[in-house]
């Protein structure tokens, strides 16, 4: 029988290999593990389109200013932009200060969609 640390390493390996059913199966046993936030992050980030806004927000709020919360928020914003969900993107990116070139491009694209007359000059 594997211990919690072995289960955590198995969960990380499942995430890395895209074995998300295995990751989900291991997650409940790791709920009290000191690194449980990583397991939940792996679950959410691997399937952003499947998880709802409520679950993603709950993780971000629970984890506060942690690196994991910041990463998930940035990944979620990118996913929203890629899906053309500009209203949600704009609403959610308002509080983001992530210094990410891809997000900066999506912000400009969002302004373009809104017919912002200054977007061309700002993009340059």
Shape: elongated
Largest sheet: none
Order of H and E elements? HHHHHHHH
Find the structural class using helix and strand composition.
mainly alpha
Strand content: under 5%
Contiguous helical run count:
8
**Considering DSSP H and I runs of 4 or more, what fraction of the residues is helical?**
55-70%
Number of strands: 0
Question: What radius of gyration results from the CA coordinates?
Answer: 17 Å
Q: Please, could you describe this protein's structure?
A:
The N and C termini lie far apart (59 Å). The chain is 68% helix and 0% strand. The chain is elongated, with a radius of gyration of 17 Å. The mean pLDDT is 91. Helix 3 (36-46) packs parallel to helix 5 and helix 4 runs antiparallel to helix 5 (67-82). The longest helix has 16 residues, at 67-82. With 124 residues, it is mainly alpha-helical.
Provide a compact summary of the structure:
By secondary structure, the chain is mostly helical.
List keywords for this structure.
0% strand; mainly alpha; 124 residues
Secondary-structure blueprint of this entry?
Blueprint: H1 4-16, H2 20-26, H3 36-46, H4 53-63, H5 67-82, H6 86-93, H7 101-113, H8 119-123
């Amino acid at each position: 029988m594997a211990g919690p640390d072995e289960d955590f390493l198995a969960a990380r390996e499942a995430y890395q290999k895209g074995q998300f059913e295995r990751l989900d199966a291991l997650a409940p046993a790791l709920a009290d593990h000191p690194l449980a936030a990583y397991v939940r992050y792996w679950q959410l980030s691997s399937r952003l389109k499947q998880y709802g806004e409520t679950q993603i927000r709950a993780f971000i709020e629970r984890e506060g200013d942690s690196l994991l919360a910041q990463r998930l928020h940035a990944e979620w914003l990118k996913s929203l932009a890629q899906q053309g969900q500009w209203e949600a993107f704009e609403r959610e990116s308002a509080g983001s200060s992530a210094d990410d070139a891809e997000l900066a491009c999506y912000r400009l694209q969002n302004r373009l969609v809104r017919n912002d007359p200054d977007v061309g000059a700002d993009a340059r």
